[in-house]
Amino acid sequence: MALRNAPFWLLVLLAVALRDSCDGASSHSLKYFITSISESSQGLPYFVTVGYVDGQAFVHYDSHSRKMQPRVSWMEKVGKEDPQYWDRNTKSTHVTEETSREDLETARIRYNQSEGLHTWQWMYGCELRRDGSKGGFQQDGYDGRTFLTFDKETLTWVAPDPQAQITQRKLDALPGYNQRWKAYLEETCIEWLQKYLSYGNETLLRTEPPVVTMSSRTEVEDGMETHVCRVHGFYPREIDASWTRDGEVWLQDTFHGFLAPNTDGTYHYWISIQIDPKERGRYWCHVEHDGLQDPLDLELKEPTDSKSNLWLIIIGCVVAALFVVGGIAGIVVFFNRRQEDYNAVPKFKKWNTNFSHHQLLNRDQLILPRS
Questions:
Q1: Counting beta carbons within 10 angstroms of the beta carbon of residue 154, is it exposed (0 to 12), middle (13 to 18) or buried (19 or more)?
Q2: What strands, in cross-sheet order, belong to the sheet with 296-299?
Q3: Distance CA 5, CA 93 (A)
Q4: Does the N-terminal peptide bond of residue 295 adopt cis geometry, omega within 30 degrees of 0?
Q5: What's the rounded Cα separation, in Å, for the pair 89 and 53?
Q6: Cα(50)–Cα(197) distance, rounded to whole angstroms?
Q7: Which residues lie closer than 8 Å to 344 by C-beta, 6 or more apart?
Q8: Phi and psi of 143, rounded to 5°?
Q9: Distance between CA atoms of residues 147 and 111, nearest Å
Q10: In sequence order, what DSSP letters do the residues of 42-81 get, joined into one string?
């Protein structure tokens, strides 16, 4: 399947994964992915909601269990502090599940499509960055296409086609609606992110320093050297790994691998570079991470004909990257797409957590009316 024709949900999940992996802009994040499908097969659910804190799934709901349930042990603290938390969020997600099916049907009619397999995706969340700044996003998709995107800076909705523009005009015309979404993304969502971080602080706020190793080989064809700097076992995921030449960051001839999770919750990453062996002494692998007291610099060593070991490492990293991509697709296939409601959703006075997004927005009438 060509990338440009890939399903919206897969592109979204890949984009989120790669963005968080590559630029390290977000120190902490709270994100929700929701999917509803018109038909199911092999007993898979029609509707799924999954919430993530720093990329770790912490809550889950699907149309089989019909219960909002924890996915990590530290979420048990929520029930102790807020006994109505699970019941409240289960009930509000029931509403989201029901109205999402109406959204699907209305979208199908609006696009003049026949009955069959159709999908509705919704994702939103917030980020609390290392420098204290805040970010937030909200996006809807239908049948592999972006349907709506909220621009919280201009307080407007962006619609890519005429069918979505009907919804765009309705939402932009609602008094105070876009302001409430902005407040939710920048205030309420951040408050809940901080609360979840306090619950899972032993896991989410820990630091594990990276282990850095180097491997190299000499290319038979031209005598150039390829060096791989592998960074393993670190947490949190934000890391700055780069090649330097004469003390300056060197991007030329550099290849970046995927930042991917390990089974123990830590991460690994690697970068490689191809150089002239005569200039080997000018290059270093530079690593900065919260788990290190000081930046780490490793010099390049003369290759010891470690061709097989080097390519085993590269192959292993590629396989790991494919595992991440495949895992994303597998999760989506298993859950059959996510659509979700939030446990602390938009506010009237202070964004009452008893209201789901669908309840607040009355989406079955306002976002995707049957007319």
A1: exposed
A2: 248-249, 240-245, 283-288, 296-299
A3: 30
A4: no
A5: 17
A6: 17
A7: 188, 189, 191, 192, 351, 353
A8: 50, 50
A9: 11
A10: TT--SEEEEEEETTEEEEEEETTT-S-EESSGGGHHHHHH
Residue 38 CA to residue 115 CA, distance in Å, equals 9
Both structure tokens of 173: 């015309």
For residue 335, give the nearest of 96, 17, 43 by alpha carbon.
Answer: 43
The Cα 363–Cα 293 span in angstroms is 50
- pLDDT tens for the chain, 371 residues: list them: 333 334 444 444 444 443 443 333 347 999 999 999 998 777 889 999 999 998 889 999 999 999 999 999 999 889 889 999 999 999 999 998 998 888 888 889 999 999 889 999 999 999 998 888 999 999 999 998 999 999 999 999 999 989 999 999 999 999 999 999 999 999 999 999 999 999 999 888 889 999 999 999 988 788 899 999 999 999 988 899 999 999 999 998 899 998 998 888 899 999 999 999 999 999 999 999 999 999 999 999 888 754 444 444 454 545 444 444 444 443 343 333 333 333 333 332 222 222 233 333 333 222 322 21
Q: Taking a C-beta distance cutoff of 8 angstroms, is the pair 137, 143 a contact?
A: no
Tell me the C-alpha distance between 343 and 52, whole Å: 12
For residue 334, give both structure tokens. 């298993």
The CA distance from 361 to 364, in Å, is: 8
Nearest CA-CA partner of 155 in 133, 181, 190? 181
Q: Hunting for tokens 């809940």 — which residue is that?
A: 192
H helix intervals, the chain: 8-23, 76-81, 85-110, 162-173, 177-183, 189-199, 201-204, 307-335, 357-361, 363-366
Give the Cα-Cα-Cα angle 262, 259, 150 (nearest 5 degrees).
115
Exposed (0-12), middle (13-18) or buried (19+): which is 40, by Cβ within 10 Å? middle
